[in-house]
Amino acid sequence: MAAKPTMILPVVLLVAILSFTNALPSETISNAAETLSDSGYIAMSLTLNLVSSSLLSQTSSATIFTPPDSIFTELGQPPQSLLELHISPLGFSFPGLRSLDPGTKIPTMSSDNYLTITSPSSSDQVSINNVKILGSPIFDDGSLIIFGIEKFFDSNFTVSDSPAQIPSINDCETPYSGGNSFSFHEASNVLISRGYSVMASFLNLQLLGFLSQPSLTLFAPADEVMVDYSGRFPDYPSLFLRHVLPCKISLKDLVNIENGTNMNTYLNGFRINVTRSGATLKVNELPIAFPDMYYSDWLVIHGVPAVLSLSEPADDDDNDDSDGDTFDTIPFRDSGDEVTVPDASTRSTEF
Question: What PANTHER family would the database entry show (predicted)?
Answer without folding.
Answer: FASCICLIN-LIKE ARABINOGALACTAN PROTEIN 20, OS02G0491300 PROTEIN-RELATED
